[in-house]
Amino acid sequence: MEYLVKYCPKCNGELRIPPDMKKCICMYCGETFEVQETESGNTEITIQAARADYKLALENIGLLLDNFNQYMENFTKKSYSTSFENYVQTGIRVIQPIESYASLSKELYEEAVTGASRALVEEVKRLIDGGQNGSKKRQKRSVRKENLDRYQYFFAVYTIPMIRYLGFKISEPLADGILANWRMEFPKNVFQKGSYEEIQAGFNKKSFFGLKF
Predict the structure, then answer these.
(1) What confidence tens digit (pLDDT) does each residue in 109-168 have?
(2) I need a labelling partner for 132 at 20 to 30 A (CA). Which of 59, 82, 142, 155 fits?
(3) How far is CA 60 from the centre of its chain?
(4) By CB neighbour count within 10 A (0-12 exposed, 13-18 middle, 19+ buried), where does 211 fall?
């Protein structure tokens, strides 16, 4: 028997569904959803809707940088776990539409990873060049360096670990893409790709990939 490959709209789990099924219950999270038709017109509508959500996610990519000062204040052995979980919830809202768009085809997968990784690093550049208020006036070199250092640390202990923690299909390629764009844009402020588990272990070792806080 032939099956359709569909993705749960809630958890993005891959499902194999009989072609005549109208409703489906996700075997991973229990979500019930309507099975979309596979005719070309409806497929195009699905892609257009996913693309709109993807573009909106890129426009909102800066949400991953909101409140980063507060997050860094909570980068302590006692507070990091709770702070990180709060950041994960923000990350899901931004990364999930990118994941859904990427799941539609190999070409869209490449577009999503490339576009999202570039957009996030460009947002950092915009903030450190123009300041937190979005001013177009370039910051003093010392201020820019200080801001860049702080974003470097934030990416190392929150952003990259969060993306990997989500465990999406795009998680590792997206993390690698962000690091590659970061190295090109900020070659003097490179950092390693870490995980939440490694960061937690680092509190006991007092070592975080060579970064000094």
Answers:
(1) 999 999 999 999 999 999 998 755 444 555 677 888 999 999 999 999 999 999 999 999
(2) 82
(3) 11
(4) middle
- Residues with Cβ < 8 Å from 139, sequence gap 6 or more? 128, 129, 130, 131, 147
Positive or negative, the CA dihedral 39, 45, 48, 49 is: negative
Instruction: Please return the burial class of 74, using the count of CB atoms within 10 Å of its CB with bins 0-12, 13-18 and 19+.
Output: middle
Best CA proximity match to 84, nearest among 93, 92, 75: 75
Question: What's the whole-model pTM score?
Answer: 0.75
SS3 for 66-97 is: CCHHHHHHCCCCCCHHHHHHHHHHHHHHHHHH
* Burial class for 121, CB neighbours closer than 10 Å (0-12, 13-18, 19+): buried
Q: CB of 203 within 8 A of CB of 80?
A: yes
